């Protein structure tokens, strides 16, 4: 399984490197369309290689997706934390009740009573 993963990552690397070498031409990215930029008097743009734009879009999509999923799962993490806290409290209470139940008894008999 490890070799399959390495083969997949290696082939992905080769594909990304060949895509980057094939798309080295510069493209201009603009913040707004030309008509809107002329009307507002503000036109921001920059020239980047095409592969940077493509790979940057993929990375930005991954980051936005991870953040969105993290925010969506917040209620589940909160509920799990509350349940874990409740389980710890109940385990402490059960332990305290067991010690009270077997108080004054022989330890061996208490262990046998718990097991049976």
Helix percentage range: over 70%
Question: N- to C-terminal separation?
Answer: 45 Å
Residue windows where pLDDT falls under 50 for at least 5 positions: none
**Tally of separate helices:** 5
Order of helices and strands: HEHEHHH
| Spatial arrangement of strands, main beta sheet | 1-2
Largest sheet geometry? 2 strands, antiparallel
According to DSSP, the number of beta strands is 2
* CA-based gyration radius: 31 Å
The assigned structural class equals mainly alpha
Textual characterization of the structure:
This protein is mostly helical and 116 residues long. It has two domains: 1-72, no CATH class; 74-116, no CATH class. The protein is 76% helix and 9% strand. The chain is built from five helices and two strands; from the N terminus they run H-E-H-E-H-H-H. Strands 1-2 form a two-stranded antiparallel ribbon. The longest helix has 28 residues, at 74-101. It is elongated, with a radius of gyration of 31 Å. The model has no long low-confidence stretch (mean pLDDT 88).
């Amino acid at each position: 399984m490890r070799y399959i993963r390495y083969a997949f990552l290696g082939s992905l690397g080769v594909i990304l490197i060949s895509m980057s070498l094939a798309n080295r031409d510069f493209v201009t990215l603009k913040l707004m369309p030309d008509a809107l930029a002329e009307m507002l008097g503000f036109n921001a743009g920059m020239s980047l290689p095409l592969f940077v734009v493509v790979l940057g879009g993929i990375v930005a999509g991954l980051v936005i997706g991870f953040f969105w999923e993290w925010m969506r799962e917040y209620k589940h993490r909160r509920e799990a934390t509350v349940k874990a806290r409740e389980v710890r409290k109940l385990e402490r209470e059960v332990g305290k009740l067991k010690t009270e139940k077997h108080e004054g008894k022989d330890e061996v008999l208490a262990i046998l009573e718990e097991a049976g």
